[in-house]
Amino acid sequence: MKYDVLVIGGGPAGLITASTAKKNYPDKKIALVKKEEIGLIPCGIPYIFGTLGGTDKDILPTKGAEALGIDVITAEVLSVDHKKRIARTSKGNIEYEKLVLATGSEPVIPGIDGVELDGVFTISKYKKDLDELYERLQHARDVVIIGGGFIGVEVADEIRKMGKRVTLVEMMEHLIPMAFDSEFGKLAEEKLREHGVEVLTSSKVKMIEGSKRVEKVILESGEVPADLVILSTGYKPRVNLAKEIGVKLGETGAIWADEYMRTSVPDVYAVGDCVEHICFFTRRPGRLMLASTATFEARVAGANLYKLRVLRTNKGNLGIFSTSIEGLSLGAAGCNEKMIKDEGFDVVVGEATGSDRHPGSIPDASKVVLKLVFSAESGHLLGGQVAGGKSVGEIINTIGMAIQNEMTAAELATLQIGTHPLLTSAPTTYPVVVAAENALMKMH
Questions:
Q1: What pLDDT, in 10s, does the model give residues 118-162?
Q2: CA-CA distance, 439 to 444, in Å (whole number)?
Q3: CA dist 72 → 67, 82, 178 (Å)
Q4: Quick check: bond before 359 cis, omega within 30?
Q5: CA nearest 281: which of 351, 381, 350?
Q6: For residues 431 and 331, is the Cβ–Cβ distance under 8 A?
Q7: Cα–Cα distance between 135 and 143 in angstroms, integer?
Q8: Which of 20, 135, 322, 430 reaches 20 to 30 Å from 300, CA-CA?
Q9: 392-403 pLDDT, tens per residue?
Q10: Which residues are known catalytic residues?
């Protein structure tokens, strides 16, 4: 088999790269190789446990790509000889002209004694692994989740819905610490506890104990019974093929790529979780594993495979996050207050509290708490966090756009907005505007 473009990886990054490439270069023959025949929507994985009731309702379709004329091949890529432009797969060799690595990420296994015991799982991205975990959960009673980031929090809430006794253990002082300041992390903790999840913050795991099968988790402060343990301690980039080809890796161990997603090896591109990203603010390299980031990069790569058609103007990656726990939605964009202060910025914080409908007595109204962090010197927006109802998803996207476009507190305070009683906060108390005004008063 011979193709102009070979994309390795069937997640969102791979699918969007292949689709964008076909739209921009319809005469090119494009193949996408993925390991599993049935892939899952990564962001939907936590919800297979309680909300969806299994993996079959979280399928990532490939019909759209196939309809464009892309060949989707289910096979494992065993090795790549880029000098000969040949990928060796479990179903034969594939020749190519240009290669895109969208190999994604895999769970980090912490160096804790007992992780090899039966009953210890990670949140894999493969359907067969998650089907096994789902089946084992049916027979579990005490579930311990180690790691209180986004995946840990969402999985804890979902498994709790299955009627299990769930303990969530986080070594930091509050949950989801990489994105949120303590006051927002505490909101997540309170909501989980309210619905029966035992949340243990500032708690370090010493070991997992059991006779062949897990029986308990030993903490520095005590022990927790467990007949199933889930490790939610982060993900690392899959870079084995990149190393084989001789692609340069960055400081974080992920693939180095330029602003057009070109790697150090000619005609080899990389997108998504396997790539090192540059922080919008500090210019430091980091790992930002988000489907939204992956698909943005995929569109850049796909459009620019044969000529530079799309100019990438972003200075770096912002990190825009959102999650939801039993009606409490949380969103974060850019840097939180602690993070930005640790970097040495002098900041001013603007705050607002209100309702996302007007009047607040409208049946589906939710309380909104918003925090914006500005540079004290220039007034530029550096980050934002918001808690509330479903409106949080779009509010945080608005904040992200404001950061990307380097808006100031003065500009946000005079933001022109559209409002409606059934859809938004009141124009008189619009949270983004009020928080910006609050910061301006502190600056003056």
A1: 999 999 999 999 999 999 999 999 999 999 999 999 999 999 999
A2: 9
A3: 11, 21, 36
A4: yes
A5: 381
A6: no
A7: 14
A8: 322
A9: 999 999 999 999
A10: 43
